[in-house]
Amino acid sequence: MYGVTGATGELGSLVVSQLINLGVQPSSIIGLARNRSKAAHLEKQGITVRIGDYDDQASLRKAFTGVDRLLLISGSEVGKRAAQHQNVIEAAQAAGTKTIAYTSISRADTSNNPLAPEHKATEELLRHSGLTSVILRNNWYAENYTGDIRAARDSGTIAAAAGDGKVASASKSDYAEAAAKVLVSESYDGMTLELAGTPWNYEQLASAAGKALGKDIRYERISIEERKQRLVAAGMPEAGAAFYAQLDESIAAGTLDISSSDLEKVLERPPLSLEEQVKKLL
């Protein structure tokens, strides 16, 4: 049996669909959800939906019963994820799960990206768990730029404090396909995969957005402080604005600039180009 955590989320739902595309019977897939009402689309496909919460290890142990290979999609609550992921890993151990694939971040063990520490901690938990693991170091989701690109339709700019930093993003659909292929094949067991697209900078992002929107879009370079001020002015709490500005700063420092063919090898085709990624966002 295959298990997918966060199965009602965008990435999780895509993984479930990809598993079915790969020939996995829906009855062999268990989707973990916190809210059954949000899982109706999965149940209509014949997926077994089980309720489990990353903060409730008992619910996870019950949900993972019979799961042999599990995809742990990292939680969304920054600051709580290491503890939540520990609950998932310990519950999987207790349930008899043999393999966990985990969605991490590029170079989690050495990166200064503010998101990296919890991913590094989770990777270490997996290494010491006694379970077989596959680390899927997803670089960056193209979907993270949906708001910026749509706003550029009116503003004509994409503003960031990322300097000349590069990002090797890929679409969630490509990451989901890779995760599904890893889940159904033991050939990746024990591996750490750096999953990334072709690196691009923000000038190239603006150009790709302009082509997709049919108008001139330019990259507006702003300071870290101005980035924070603009986010606060748009209604974001100061702590959140400071965190997002820190992400920009880490991109400028090169934390997401990585060249790797792992994603292409798993997909057995090139991942979507930047231009194709941007078109999917509109």
Characterization of this structure:
This is NmrA family protein. Pfam families: NmrA (PF05368). It comes from Sediminispirochaeta smaragdinae (strain DSM 11293 / JCM 15392 / SEBR 4228). The structure is a single chain. The mean pLDDT is about 95. This protein has about 280 residues and is of the alpha/beta class. The chain has twelve helices and eleven strands. A seven-stranded parallel sheet has the order 3-2-1-4-5-6-9, sandwiched between helices. Strands 7-11 form a two-stranded parallel sheet. It has a two-stranded antiparallel ribbon with strand order 8-10. The chain folds into two domains: about 1-140, NAD(P)-binding Rossmann-like Domain (Rossmann fold, 3-Layer(aba) Sandwich); about 140-170 and about 195-260 and about 270-280, Alpha-Beta Complex (UDP-galactose 4-epimerase, domain 1), CATH 3.90.25. Helices cover about 45% and strands about 15% of the residues. It starts with a strand and ends with a helix. It has helices at about 10-20, 40-45, 55-65, 80-95, 115-125, 145-155, 170-185, 200-215, 225-235, 240-250, 260-265, 275-280; strands spanning about 1-5, 30-35, 50, 70, 100-105, 130-140, 155-160, 165, 190-195, 200, 220. Helix 2 (about 40-45) links the parallel strand 2 and strand 3. The protein is globular.
